[in-house]
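Appendix B. Chain record.
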Amino acid sequence: QVQLTESGGGLVHTGDSLRLSCAASGRAFPSLALGWFRQSPGKEREFLASISLTAGDIYYGSSAEGRFIISRDNAKNTGYLDLNSLEPADTAVYFCAAGMGYGLGYVEGPSQDPNLYDYWGQGTQVTVSS
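Structure tokens predicted for this chain:
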């Protein structure tokens, strides 16, 4: 069993940056693809970014493209999502997820599907004020 714990959220202003971290328990992290999603009240969970086991394949959702950067450090069992040029529309709970399903991390379609991830963190709140 893998447990994921997000951190790094908070209250920031428009144009600020944040680094979210996703710490994984156990030794399975290097064998898992990693994804980041977010969810606002009344909205569906939105795909932001995914990264394959060795970071050779990275995909971004439209909201993240050009502003957010996903990375991972397998030696530290930790994934990251750098949020830049934040806007009030980025206010949401941000989740990291991990899994080893077919194509996860390597193929864009599956990597964007939250149902294919096996493990989820509890989420971290990001609030952007204008």
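Further analysis of this model is presented in Appendix C.
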